[in-house]
Amino acid sequence: MLAWSGLRHRYGGGAEISYADFALRPGRHLLLRGASGSGKSTLLALLAGLLRVQHGGLEVAATELQSLTPRALDAWRGATLGVVPQRLHLSDALTVAENLALPALAAGERPDTDRATQLLEALDIVELAGRRPHQLSVGQAQRVALARALMRRPRLLLADEPSANLDDEHTLHMLALLLDSAEREGCTLVIASHDARVVEALGAREDVAEVSL
Ligand SMILES: Nc1ncnc2c1ncn2[C@@H]1O[C@H](COP(=O)(O)OP(=O)(O)OP(=O)(O)O)[C@@H](O)[C@H]1O
Asked: How many domains would you assign to the chain?
C-alpha cells in the first residue's frame, strides 16, 4: 500500500533530505514523527503527489508515483487521496454542506449529498450542515475537514499535525475520529505530527506503525 526506497528530495540549492527505506504492512496505519524541519511535510507532499519524486521509488496505493506524468498524477490524486491539512482550508464563503461538495466539483463530478449527510452523521455534526466555517469551534471545523477529505472514498487519508490548536481532550478525540474513520472507510491513515501527546497515544496501538524522521 505504502512503500519507498532510495527516496531523497532536494529543494533548489538546499540540503538534501534522505528517507530511510520503508514499507507499511497491510492493514496498518502510519505515524510520521520528527522534529521541526526533519522533512515530514516534504514526505507528505511526496505521498500526496504534490512534489515530484526526484530520486528513488515511492509506491502509494499500488501506484509507482515516480512513473506518472503530471497529468496522470493529478487524476491519481483526486481518485486516491483525502487530505486533512494543518490549516483546514475550509471556504468561509460556503456552508459546511457546500464545502463538502467541493472535492466532487473540482473533479468535474456531481456532488453526492447523501454521502455528505452520511459522513456528517458519522462525525456527529449533521446539525452543522448549514453553518459557515467561522461559526464553528476548532474541533468542529476539523471534523468538517475530515468529512471533506473522505467524500470521494480515498484509499489513503493524510492528516498533517491534526492536534495543532487542540487541548488534550480534543486531541485524543480527533485521533480516535481519524482512526475510526479510516477503519470504517477501509483506507490507510497517515498522520504527521511532532506532538508528544499524539506520539504517546498512537505509540500504544498495534495497528499503527511509526517512522521517525
Ligand atoms: N519550499 C522549500 N524551499 C526550500 N527549502 C524547503 C522548502 N520546504 C521545506 N524546505 C526545507 O526542507 C527541510 C524539511 O522541511 P519540512 O517542511 O519537510 O519539515 P517538517 O518536518 O515538516 O517541519 P515542520 O514540523 O516545522 O513543519 C527544512 O530544512 C526546510 O527548511
From this structure: 1
